[in-house]
Amino acid sequence: MASLVYVRLPDARLLPFSSLEELVRGTQVIVDIDGILEFGTVECLNIESAEAVGEILRVATPEDAEKQERICAFESEDKDVVRENLDRLGIEMKLVAVQRSFDGKKILVMYTAEDRVDFRQLVKDLAGIFRMRVEMRQISERDEAKFRGGCGACGQPLCCRRFLTIPRQTSIKMAKVQGLALTPNKVNGVCGKLMCCLQYEYSQYREALSKLPSIGSLVETKEGKGEVAYLDLVREKVAVRLNNESHYIVKFDPSEIKVLVEAKAVEDKEGEDDR
């Protein structure tokens, strides 16, 4: 019985394939996608909720690995050829990568562009030069970061490079709810978009917020009246700036305060979506 496994392809995509063999993570394999053979590495096993995009033909041999290294060695030269033709035709796009398929039938050109690009003449010219099928693939800034790899602010390899098959839908509201500084270097990833990890703990922060008064609320405590200065969501504490002579900020448990006037909650403020 065939099983489904996720395979990482040279273009950094993580796609599900059917396999008749029992494989382990890290196994190098040859896969078939619409009649094109590609070299890949198994990363996730026993996937049941996905639909296979192709099948795993066999486990790669040492000779296959050597062949893939030779194919990868063409990338720099191929990029120069594509870049020369882009300049000749006056096409404005950012060239990300040029990759050949394992069987030599297809060459993939990945690029980013702000506007729609007419690359029909480019495809004709490249097909004549490389003598293989040319596929132009426009990718997003997130896809480019996924392809190039790197480390996030946490010091770990990028989530999109490791395990995210589809980027998370994030919004600036998620950063607001978690009390993050709304500056690009704090909330944006290396791709320039909002970090996917903003969604990981969003529900926990929302739950914590529901138990606490909003910032700016007027409250009464055992040490007197005051205003909520900020919230310690991790410890579920309320920091209150007291209205006495000291004006100290003291943290209280929610059970130790009484809300007199509730301020507008962060959750009520609509944020902009990531895309």
Short overview:
25% of the residues lie in helices and 30% in strands. The chain is of the alpha+beta class and 275 residues long.
Helix content bin: 10-25%
Number of strands: 13
- For the termini, the CA-CA separation is 41 Å
Share in β-strands: 25-35%
Largest beta sheet: strand ordering: 1-2-5-3-4
How is this fold's topology laid out?
Layout: E1 3-8, E2 14-19, E3 28-33, E4 36-47, E5 54-59, H1 62-72, H2 75-89, E6 94-100, E7 106-112, H3 120-130, E8 133-138, H4 141-148, H5 159-162, H6 172-177, H7 184-187, H8 202-210, E9 218-221, E10 224-232, E11 237-242, E12 249-252, E13 258-261
Parallel strand pairs: 2-5, 7-8
Antiparallel strand pairs: 1-2, 1-4, 3-4, 3-5, 6-7, 9-10, 9-13, 10-11, 11-12
Helix pairs in contact: 2-3
What keyword list fits this structure?
five-stranded antiparallel sheet, 4 domains, GMP Synthetase, Chain A, domain 3, 25% helix, 275 residues, alpha+beta, 30% strand, five-stranded mixed beta barrel, 8 helices
